Amino acid sequence: MEFLILIIILVFYGISYYFKKRIVPKIKGSIGEYKVASKLKRLNKKEYLVLNDILLKNGDLTTQIDHIVISKSGIFVIETKNYKGWIHGHQNSEYWTQTIYKHKSKLRNPIKQNWVHVLAIKKTLSEYNYIKYFPIVVFAGDGKLKNVTTTLPVVYNNKLIRTIKNLNEQESLSYSQMELISDKLLKSNITDRKVSKSHSLQVKKQIRERNKKEKQKICPKCGNKLIKKRGKYGKFYGCYNFPKCRYTINIK
Ligand SMILES: [Zn+2]
To answer: How far is the CA of 138 from the centre of ligand 1 (A)?
Structure first.
């Protein structure tokens, strides 16, 4: 009987652990994306074409883009984050910090993540090399942006529409060009489930390999040594190959 109770307790812990680690982040992500998508619905359909959740090929890898908005002045590439707590970070660092009370955790710099998305779209739309790109990071949760130093827009969801409209100044695309671009992106969108599954496996593998290298103090980007440095914002590890390679890790 006691043995049975023990088994039940273990199974219960197993399930709740899995739920916290795997299911909750996914749900949070989807809620953030849903919130942003519903905001983007307010944009005038005659001036803006909105695509949500696009998966593009990027070399051997694939990359998932939360939202793409095509306008007369160019393409807005939007990365959505749904975080609580206080968010700190710089435009060029690898990681940002989330603080909840005294608990700190790190997140991948969303500006850099979004940059990869911009490059993937550029590659897909290589015949339109005159397009201007506007990357935007949106925080759709309760998180407060406390010390985010960047020249690119990192905004709350309620400022998103205003940010897009302010940047949509110069006309460089006609409506029919916008439609062609939208068609091209939708045609390139990978909808096959198997591919998306292998995408998430790839991402996990990449993260594991990067963490391993960081532990060994090897730059995951170029393979040089990571060395301790001191900068404006305190101590950090930077690549030996600086300024050719700008990989950094914060020291907590
Ligand atoms: Zn490096």
So the answer is: 28
**d(CA 241, ligand 1 centre) in Å:** 6
DSSP 158: G
Calculate the alpha carbon distances from 62 to 24, 128, 149, 211, 252 in Å.
Answer: 23, 21, 29, 20, 31
The alpha carbon of 132 and the centre of ligand 1 are apart by a number of angstroms equal to: 29
Q: What is the pLDDT of residues 93-120, one digit of tens each?
A: 989 999 998 899 999 999 999 999 999 9
Q: Are 45 and 144 in contact (CB under 8 A)?
A: no
User: What's the 247 CA to ligand 1 centre distance in angstroms?
Assistant: 5
DSSP string covering 165-201 = HHH--S--S-HHHHHHHHHHHHHH----HHHHHHHHH
Q: Token pair for residue 195?
A: 């591919």
Q: How far is the CA of 245 from the centre of ligand 1 (A)?
A: 5
Contacts of residue 117, Cβ cutoff 8 Å, sequence gap at least 6: 63, 65, 77, 79, 135
Ligand 1 centre distance from Cα of residue 220 (Å): 7
Per residue in 33-91, pLDDT (tens digit) is 999 999 999 999 999 999 999 999 877 788 899 999 999 999 999 999 998 899 999 99
Calculate how far, in angstroms, residue 140's C-alpha sits from the geometric centre of ligand 1: 32
Output the pTM of the full model: 0.74
Distance of CA 133 to the CA centre of its chain: 16
Q: Contact at 8 Å (CB) between 207 and 199?
A: no
**Domain spans, the chain:** 2-194
Task: Tell me, in angstroms, the distance from the centre of ligand 1 to residue 212's CA.
Answer: 15
